[in-house]
Fold this sequence. Notes:
This protein is α+β, with helices and mostly antiparallel strands. The chain folds into 2 domains: 2-141 and 312-316, Diaminopimelate Epimerase, Chain A, domain 1; 145-307, Diaminopimelate Epimerase, Chain A, domain 1, CATH 3.10.310.10. Helix content is 19%, strand content 40%. It is built from 5 helices and 17 strands. It has a 17-stranded mixed sheet that branches. The mean pLDDT is 97.
Amino acid sequence: METFEVVDMHxxxxxxxxxxxxxPDLPSGGILEKRAYVRDHLDHxxxxxxxxxxxxxxxxGALLVEPNLPGADIAVLFMHNEGYSTMCGHAVIALGRYAVxxxxxSAKEPMxxxxxxxPCGMVVATVEVLDGKAGAVSFESVPSFLFAADRTVQVxxxxxxxxxxxxxxxxxxxxxxxxxxxxxxxxxxxxFVDAATALTGAVxxxxxxxxxxxxxxxxxxGSILTDGGDGAGGVATxxxxxxxxxxxDRSPTGSGVTARLAAMHARGGVALGEARLFESxxxxxxxxxxxxxxxxxxxAAIVARVSGRSxxxxxxxxxxxxxxxxxxxxxxx
Length: 333
């Protein structure tokens, strides 16, 4: 009988299931090689931990693996209802606190740095520490950029939709929700999911993606629908990210905030160091700012800093009995 230990956290309402034990050792190699290995050989474990009866269609997971990059304190593979993502800001915020609390790094007051190797590259988390306890966490993104600006695509059921594509550790289509007739606080979540899913499909078919670091990063992870605001002046801009297989992020989406900041900066809409406020579909908030400019291959890029808080929700010991076929994971959608 297999046994798996997990610690559950959430960041702004979005779950993070950290796998503590139960996975077999992975072959040595780079983080993208490890990602490919678990995808090709251990995907049954993702389904078991993310799907019912232990999870649900919107569960999110983090598997700690052996770091490969010099200077990395920890390395992580992200998992969700469809597979394995390349970046996850809400999980990074949770892992920063977890790493301090569990002694994976030495806690230093008032700030402790945790270098987290992600499939998209090194992400540097900064954890507030007071009396030995971890608090709020911010992270410094990988180089992020606006990939395609002011494009228009025909979205089945909605007509012509104007959008951007931006990279914040993963690629997202960005669009104003008003184009779909949606209003935050009034339109049902299902309507946002249907619109964003349709947009992701249309953009995936019409915009070929590329990334200077690896072809494994060049896929459209999802769509972010916004209220059209910019988060300036302490007035939060609301957005919802729908990613993977119509999975809804309850948090403002850390990599999505990074992508939005990259798009704003490319248009001259946000200055270096200028804080912007982002609010999720459930009302949780992240703060984001452009920390510095850089390049990603030929793309003018930014490094963003995104801040939020994570909380513990429990820990579990899961078992899989040999004759339990349903216990291997299923979804009712």
